[in-house]
Fold this sequence. Notes:
The protein is an alpha/beta fold.
Amino acid sequence: MKKGLLFLSNGFEDCEALATRAFLKKNYLDIITFTSNTDLEVVSSQKLIVKSDLHIDEVQLSEYDFLIIPGGPYVKKMLEENGEILNKIFQIIKHFVENKKIIGAICAAPSFLGKLNLLENHNFTCYPGYEKYIKGNHCPNEKAVTSDIFVTSRSSETVLDFVKHLLNKIKK
Length: 172
């Protein structure tokens, strides 16, 4: 069974994380959530409290086949603060890229990939306004885009398209 890693941070977008998780699990994929919060409790943008499976420091990256990064207000905050957690997220992303493993990023989350210049030679989509942080071929009319190992999507309204693209890529 393929195994995916899903990042949760305070302010994650509920639908983008939890609906994606639910649909992928329904397709017999093992999804493990992780957070940087020490008590593992994470508060979504709509104030839903969920408990993550692992702390970021417990993650064994070699165990996972793909990475999912939902959007939400935390993305902009994390990018502006440019702190230790952001560096850990970047290290995780780099691991998946170096090992040619799938990375799914929705809404504002493609900005993490943009900050690392990973989409420079790729088609992508993201939440309107965030394309200014990303070098690459922005496809604003697409609900979801797959380019090499990257799957990007615009917003919570495009979660189903995001999941379809992820499943097509993961199940190849």
